[in-house]
Amino acid sequence: MKHRLISLLIIAAILIPFTIVQAAETIKIGALYTMTGRGGQYGKDSEVAIKIALDEVNAKGLPGGAKLDVIITDDKNPQYAVSVAKRYITDEKCKFLFGIISTAIGLAVTEVSKEHKVIFVGTDHAGTDLTANKFQKYYFRSSNNTFQSMMAGAYYLKDEVKNWKKIAYIGPDYAYGRDQWMELKWGLDKLGVKYQVVGEYWPKLYEPDYTSYITAIIKAAPDILVNGMWGGDTVAFIKQAKPYGLFSKMKYFHVDAGGNYEALAGLGADMPAGIIMSARHHNNWPETPANKTYVEKFYKAAGRYPSYAAEGAYVGVHMVAEAIRKVGNANDTEALVKAMEGMKIPCPEDPQGFTSYIDPKTHQIVQIQAIGTTVKNDKFPPAKYMLGNFKVYPADKLWPSFEYIDYMTKVKGK
Amino acid sequence: MDINTFIAQFLSGLSTAMLLFLISSGLTLIFGVVNVLNFAHGSFYLLGTYFAYQLMQLFDNFWVGLLVGAVGAGIVGMVIEFLFLRRIYGRAQEGAFQLLMTFAFILILDDVVKFIWGTEYKTIPKPASLAGSLNIGTVTVPVYNIFIIIVGLLVVLFAWYVLTKTDTGKMVRASSLDRIMLGLLGTNVPMIMTVVFGVATAMGGLAGVLAAPLRTVTPGAGVEFIIDSMIVVVIGGFGNFWGALLGALIIGEVLAFGILWMPELATVLTFVVMIIVLIVKPEGLLAKKAVGRK
Predict the structure, then answer these.
(1) A392 and A344, same structural domain?
(2) Is CB count within 10 Å lower at the N or C end of chain B?
(3) Are residues A211 and B12, on separate chains, in Cβ contact within 8 Å?
(4) Which residues on chain B are in Cβ contact (under 8 Å) with A215?
(5) 3-state helix/strand/coil string of B132-199
(6) Residue B290 scores a pLDDT above 90
(7) Least Cα separation, residue B271 to chain A (angstroms)
(8) Are residues A249 and A332 in the same domain?
(9) Chain B residues with beta carbon closer than 8 angstroms to that of A76
(10) What ipTM did this prediction achieve?
(11) Which residues, at least 6 apart from A330, have a Cβ–Cβ distance to it below 8 Å?
């Protein structure tokens, strides 16, 4: 009898910790990213950053010993992404929707989030609509929208570029390209800058050959050419424009995605010096311990430097974890929404003395924007040029702008 | 419009047209001879680019990369034709099988590229001798664009010679007209089809390497111009090699002058041209009659 009792105690001693471990909840985040084609690099980089953030979050711990986990699926197109988002909620019991590169897909998935009352953290797509005219209270964004980039750009053109009047624009012929141009012009008008538009060019997304656009732009002879392309389109345009001498004939201005690291790396020595660019994250700015550590961790995990998209994913995971810590669980969605509104969230891109935060009214992360020019710098190979000579624009001057939101709602509808 | 603007826009249109021709000519050759609408043609363009990139990592020589890119894409093309496409020739609903199989190869080859070389953009620099620009009056023309125009013209001359002056060319043309009759006359038609498929995919690979210094080397790049190539082939006539040249020239110049005069509508204009051709001459400008199944 005594032996049996001892045996039972031993078995209980072995099993009880397992029971406790099994009881610890795994909180699932359902992520959607573009994993194939041109945008595939953003998805892959976001995946790496998510793993880094998960390790950090789970090492720090969550209430009740819960663990955070992220499931990633290729988003393909809006219809498919919507079906996966619904499956995440109903079958996988995900507490959060997450990610998405394309604004078109983001706009589709935000409807699922609204319908099912599940928080959706957008980490990359930059269409201003989602935190403006298409705002719904379960949507949050962990990277800046195009308005923030273009408003900072308007300040730059007003203060840093002298003696210009004629301006032209080239950008992909869909919402992202169209919105940037609308936002920049609105910003310039708001700041009282007088200008003359001498050309607007709308190549299709992923256009492989810009030769005829380049010769037409040179003929139009603007003082400033604004480019609204991203990724490989930037690489192709610059490669093709350089031998035509375009960069010595006019100022080149490309401030939402021109300075993305993947474009700097893709161009290598072909990148012209002194052109005006920015990105949503810079591997070499700010030179803070937080940014250096983040970039080093990414390099160690992936064997390459991160594109801007990775930072949004990294910050998004930390946002979710911080909200769960504040509320104490991941089940009370309304409390989580309240916890995220106004939340301060340290980001690798925050310069010393500033912490990014979520605007409580629009759920948009509010961040400082830094615009620079290309300078020789081979510390982040294969890039041969990085951005330098940064001009920094305070976050609260850029967002929120309810005047612009009203304008956008009037132009594009609710 | 002043003469300098005309020259600048015409030359930019010509350079666009020549790259389109190099891609589309392979597509139309495969359709004309092998009777396969190869949706995966862009994937051979992509493979050529990556083969060249890999070789240039080892030898740092553009010309070696150009050769290996074209030949490598051609070899993969022949293997795919021999092992896979050949199995669906003559099947009931062959067209549907073609669509499924070639589309599957787009996905497979794209993933193979991603698996081997990763998703980040690669760089293939121009050879130093072709890196500068020429000034014709006040018009600046990059030397590399002139080089592409010259290569395009050389391919046209070479193809004209092979197709019209050699026995091989005659057999290729004969197999595009009636492959059954040619087989009955004792010609090894399957081998012709494999070789033609290889040559056409090698042209895709060649176009990929030539375009790489001007474009982005990335997975997915192969599917981006398949629509433009299809438009070229439709305008020129499915299966008609010279039609591909004419179609490419029309599209290149319509786009070049469209961008100058009505930039808002430039990309739509190419589709407008295609629709007009489909209404006026549905079989394509240089096709004698509608092409049916052989």
Answers:
(1) no
(2) N
(3) yes
(4) 8-9, 11-12, 256, 260
(5) CEEEECCEEEEHHHHHHHHHHHHHHHHHHHHHHHCHHHHHHHHHHHCHHHHHHCCCCHHHHHHHHHHH
(6) no
(7) 13
(8) no
(9) none
(10) 0.85
(11) A25, A27, A66, A95, A96, A324, A336
Among candidates A206, A208, A245 on the partner chain, residue whose Cβ is nearest the Cβ of B140? A245
Query: Which of B216, B224, B255 should we substitute to test contact with A (largest number of A Cβ atoms within 10 Å)?
Result: B216
Enter the DSSP assignment of A272: P
Across the interface, do A270 and B145 touch by the CB < 8 Å criterion? no
pLDDT in tens, A382-410: 999 999 999 999 999 999 999 999 999 99
Pull the structure tokens for residue A156. Answer: 């730059």
- A273 with A298, same domain: the answer is no
- Tell me how long chain B is: 294
Q: Say how far apart CA A333 and CA A330 lie, in whole Å.
A: 7
Residues A275 and A318 in one domain: no
- Residues in Cβ contact with A327 at an 8 Å cutoff, skipping those fewer than 6 apart: A335, A336, A339
A85 and A187 belong to one structural domain:
no
Rounded Cα gap, residues B52 and B62, in angstroms: 8
What residues in A contact B223, CB-CB < 8 Å? Answer: 37
Q: Which domain holds residue A225?
A: 147-285+369-412
Please indicate whether, in this complex, the C-beta atoms of B110 and A37 are within 8 angstroms of each other.
Answer: yes
Type of residue found at B6:
F
Is residue A338 domain-shared with residue A250, that is, in the same domain? no
A360 and A212 both lie in a single domain: no
